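Q: I'm building a small set of examples for a reading group on sequence design. Run inverse folding on the following structure and report the sequence directly after it, with nothing in between.
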């Protein structure tokens, strides 16, 4: 069965844009109300869906993961892409000793 493509852009929805401080407040609020690592897992799943929507036939994916939470999102995306049968290479850009503790496996 062929994969279904989803339109990514343009969108007719008006979506709010937040500055860095407002984004931190929203993230802190959401983080406080869900189990640990939930937002990172959701972000990784969303990134993997976007990657597959943009390049549905790609078999190899390279992910540059930074040392912060966005890097964790990239690692989560790698997990999802591996589960989708893609070959994934992750490059960690930063000090590995500064990474937060690894979340429990699922």
């Amino acid at each position: 069965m062929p994969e279904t493509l989803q339109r990514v852009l343009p969108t007719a929805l008006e979506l709010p844009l937040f500055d860095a401080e407002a984004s931190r407040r929203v993230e802190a609020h959401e983080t406080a109300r869900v189990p640990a690592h939930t937002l990172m897992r959701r972000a990784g799943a969303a990134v993997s869906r976007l990657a597959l929507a943009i390049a549905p036939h790609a078999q190899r994916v390279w992910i540059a993961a930074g040392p912060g939470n966005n890097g964790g999102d990239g690692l989560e995306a790698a997990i999802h892409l591996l589960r989708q049968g893609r070959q994934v290479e992750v490059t960690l850009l930063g000090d590995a000793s500064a990474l937060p503790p690894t979340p429990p496996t699922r």
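The first strand starts at residue 60 and ends at 65.
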